[in-house]
Amino acid sequence: MFNSNTASEIKDQASELAETAQETLSDSAKAGKASVRKLGRKLENKARDSKKEALALLESLRDILDPDAHSNATEHVIEQLSENFSEWSESLDKELSQVLKNSRIQPRQWLRKPSLLTLSLAVGAGVLVGYALGKDD
User: Fold this and answer.
1) CB distance 113 to 25 below 8 Å
2) Which domain holds residue 10?
3) What is the predicted pLDDT for the residue at 6?
4) Long-range contacts formed by 103-109: CB under 8 A, 24+ apart
């Protein structure tokens, strides 16, 4: 009922399945690392742009707050700048939350695809083992 050829075939298939699972896991890890690096670069660029905008805002405030300027005009400009700054802050907050959301979703998607492949290979191997064990010679 159970011969040595069948056992060696099962061992070969099991080792192939293990190798495939290991390769899939390695590919998933590489894809996850690449995604994290990409998101890191995006965040770095956004932070750099934010710093430039903040420095430009400070410079414009220094120019506006010249002692020779009228106080009413200065107050009006400060109000406009504070409104612009709050809008800029809200948009930056939305962008950062979107990047964080994407960083949580993308690795999950990459991990699901290879997992389904590994699962289907395991089911296939199980069916083969069941067929081999149930086969009457």
Assistant:
1) no
2) 4-134
3) 82
4) 103/35, 103/36, 103/39, 106/35, 107/31, 107/32, 107/35, 107/36
Residue with tokens 């060696």: 8
- 78 sits in which H/E element: helix 71-134
pLDDT tens-digit series, residues 14-44:
888 888 888 888 888 888 888 888 888 888 8
Per the structure, how many domains does the chain have? 1
Paired tokens of 18: 């293990």
Long-range contacts of 99-102 (CB under 8 A, 24+ apart): 99/39, 99/42, 99/43, 99/46, 102/39
| Residue bearing tokens 């590994």 | 118
Q: What's the rounded Cα separation, in Å, for the pair 85 and 62?
A: 16
Q: What is the secondary structure of 22-38 as a DSSP string?
A: HHHHHHHHHHHHHHHHH
Residue type, 15: S
